[in-house]
Amino acid sequence: MIQIEKLRKVYRGRDREVTAVDGVDLTVAEGEVFGVLGRSGAGKSTLLRCVNLLERPDEGRVVIDGRDLLSLRGAELRRARQGIGMIHQHFGLLGSRTVAGNVAFPLEVMGVPRAERARRVAELLDLVGLGDHAKAYPSRISGGQKQRVGIARALAGRPKVLLSDEATSALDPETTASILDLLRDLNRRLGLTILLITHEMDVVKSICDSAAIMRDGRLTESGPVPELLARPDSDLARGLFPLPPADPREGTTLVEVTFVGSVADEPFVSALARKYSLDVNILGGAVETVAGERVGRLQLELPGDPSLNAAQLAFLRESGLTVTVLNPATPEEAR
Is Membrane included in the keywords of this UniProt record (predicted)? Predict the structure, then answer.
């Protein structure tokens, strides 16, 4: 649905150039919720604005639903952009218009007749849970309700793609959860493809099917969320499941274990301890449901040096776990 190839955007001033997006390749499948995670200044917002050409890239391609937007001009480009909705961090509502008036605005721009506009606005407000707030003004509703208005407005033109620019970062945790639930529901009910940017790990954990981490204008890792979390070298895994610093005691084997899916419900630690008569020390870890799958990481301490624990490590790997030995003297165990 969304194919970004070698995308590059440079801002030029008198004395310097800033490369905000530096050769990004990204694919978002149809019907997927894809999150781009990164700190402020990483280039996330510029990337998103390049997708709908609010910012025109210097190089690369943006292909949405099979059409290269950069090859379009005039009315053809405007029609293509009507298939892309966008919601903003600070809502962007018109204070002089009612809730209904804000949702109707893009329909007016598109020339939709009045009666059809009214039907569509009522339908959208019901969809986002604001059917009884049509006549209210933005100053009289909460932040979460304002974002629901913004979502309804973004859906006015029946887009196939929805872009979300830090849509929950101005909201409290409870309201954030309700907005994320709404986005996931819309994704499933309408078949929307959603590309969102965020600096919050919990957003990715809550609703994203796939994710990428952006740093200094580049994507450092990208893929389905469960696959990234199963990789011991993944920044996403470390961010969602922080573990204690690796500091193996003398005469022990320090092991990091990651797991995805049904194996998360298996008692592999107790099975290991029984099979080999080991005292296994669990130093830290967590198990959560992410993208609909059980995912977790554990840090285990086994008695004995790694060279003495080959059978035990093989047992863990044969149980379907990804195992990394953290003892610095035995890097071969990490492979």
Answer: yes
Question: How far is residue 231 from each of residues 78, 156, 175, 256, 301, measured CA to CA in Å?
Answer: 42, 40, 32, 11, 20
Residues 6+ apart with CB under 8 A from 159: 82, 83, 84, 85, 192
Helices (H), the chain: 44-51, 74-81, 99-109, 114-127, 143-154, 173-190, 201-207, 225-229, 235-240, 268-276, 310-318
Long-range contacts of 244-247 (CB under 8 A, 24+ apart): 244/283, 244/284, 244/299, 246/299, 246/326
Measured distance CA(102)–CA(98) in Å, rounded: 6
Domains of the chain: 2-224 (3.40.50.300), 241-334 (3.30.70.260)
Say if CB 54 and CB 32 are below 8 A apart. Answer: no
pLDDT for residue 329: 56
pLDDT digits (tens, 9 = 90+) for 204-253: 888 999 999 999 999 999 999 888 887 878 888 888 777 777 777 888 99
The pTM of this model reads: 0.86
